[in-house]
Design goal:
The chain has a 5-stranded mixed beta barrel. A 4-stranded mixed β-sheet has the order 1-4-3-2. The radius of gyration is 17 Å and the shape is globular. The two termini are 32 Å apart. The longest helix is centred in the last third of the chain and has 25 residues. By secondary structure, it is an alpha/beta fold. The mean pLDDT is 95. Helix 1 runs parallel beside helix 4. The protein has a domain of 169 residues: 3-Layer(aba) Sandwich (Rossmann fold), CATH 3.40.50.1580. Bound molecules: ligand LNRAV4D5 and hypoxanthine (HPA).
Length: 244
Amino acid sequence: MIGGTGFEVGGEPSLIDTPYGRLMAAATELCGREVLFIPRHGEAHLPPHRVNYRALLWAARASGAVRVVSTNTVGSMAWHPVGSLVIPTDFVDFTKSRPSTFFEEEAVHVDLTAPYCPEVRRALAAGAEAAGALVSDGIYVCTEGPHLESPAQIRMLRQFGDVVGMTGYPEVVLARELELCYASICIVTNPAAGMRKDSMSAAEIRTEMAISARLLREVIEAAITMIPEERGCSCGRALAEARL
Ligand SMILES: CSC[C@H]1O[C@H](OP(=O)(O)O)[C@H](O)[C@@H]1O
Ligand code: HPA
């Protein structure tokens, strides 16, 4: 699991070395399944544009994981109430400065027709339903941050997607490049800028996330039991025809 702002599951902490740097992770068990929990922002809570996304995914694979469940907090650019969940089906990238590939020296073009693993997405949707959460599919728009968006930016971005965050990209792409299954469960913490009269501060967003953390854990625990043992998706063959 890659845990976002305000989400923890506990576990035995350890340091993992990757070619991209060292990070902290915690091994634990959830519902009988072995889980490696990696806090996305690390102990120092790195801002989104400085998160070491390649190290996160590399560490996941090096630990033997084949599936990654990520949690993200998002602002809604549509109708979603605060506290509801969104499972991305697709994404649009508006970031500016992040290393976004493991393949700097060769031309490798992974297919992103279905960027998020359909099997893990299905399990998350079933887990959300079992937990009684309000959940919907949606398109995740990723901004560079670290500032929250302006109302004019949101008027533009809402033509491209449903929810906005700063961390969903390039994780989703890097996971595919490592042939990992990857899906995200997003918690709506606020209406995006300009969607309501009053604004919402980062501190208030964090408070909203804390309120929803227990629900999110319930959803993930239920989802984990619904992920099939064997992979039936094509994520594990992402590189088969990706090289030129
Ligand atoms: C003011 S909160 C913004 C911060 O929270 C989200 O991070 P994460 O997806 O890791 O929960 C968002 O993308 C920003 O990084
Ligand atoms: O409104 C938002 N914008 C960007 N990232 C976010 N993460 C939570 N809410 C937001």
